[in-house]
Amino acid sequence: LVSPRIMSAVNGASAQTSLHIGDTVLFFVRSKERNGHVYYELSSAPYNFLSVYPVKTGSEKEPDFPNVAFATFKVLAPNKYKAKQHLNALEQRKSEEYEISNAKRAVDAEDLENEQEQMRRLGTKVLYGDLLQIQHTGSKKYVTVCSEASKTESNNLLVNLND
After folding, report:
1. Which helix (DSSP H) or strand (DSSP E) does residue 133 occupy?
2. Strand 133-136 to strand 35-39: parallel, antiparallel, or no bridges (unpaired)?
3. Sheet harboring 72-76: ordered strands across?
4. Model's pTM, two decimal places?
5. CA-to-CA distance for 65 and 72, rounded, in angstroms?
6. How far, in Å, CA of 114 to CA of 82, rounded?
7. Tens of pLDDT along 105-157?
8. In sequence order, what E strands does 40-132 have?
9. How deeply is 116 buried, as exposed, middle or buried, from its count of CB atoms within 10 A (0-12, 13-18, 19+)?
């Protein structure tokens, strides 16, 4: 189900002209090669890359997706990951159980802090230069731009989804 706010933005009837933390958005690509919405379907491939779901000419404002959740993205404030990275490092080194236990408590505290920061910033207007995270609503994964070339367009960087 698509919210009226999303559909009004897609249909060009949005009274709101600013992007806010917590907004759900669709991304539209318009190029010589293709026109369509950024889309992701669950896959068993090693890369969770995004693709462009083609639209018929003239129907850009009336998207027709098999599942709209795979085309919508949520704008979020950046989360912290330091405690999770530390826990992963400890687990890979096969550290002592008490160190891992302490790290898990730190991850829980960091998760709570991230949740509180999202709630605090919810509805805040996004300004030029703000750091953001874009979360795919269907998979709950985050959009990531990698330093390697795209698998389909070697002149562009790879954009995929990560946990």
Report:
1. strand 133-136
2. unpaired
3. 24-26, 72-76, 133-136, 142-149, 157-162
4. 0.77
5. 11
6. 12
7. 999 999 999 999 999 999 999 999 999 999 999 889 999 888 888 777 778 88
8. 51-54, 72-76
9. exposed
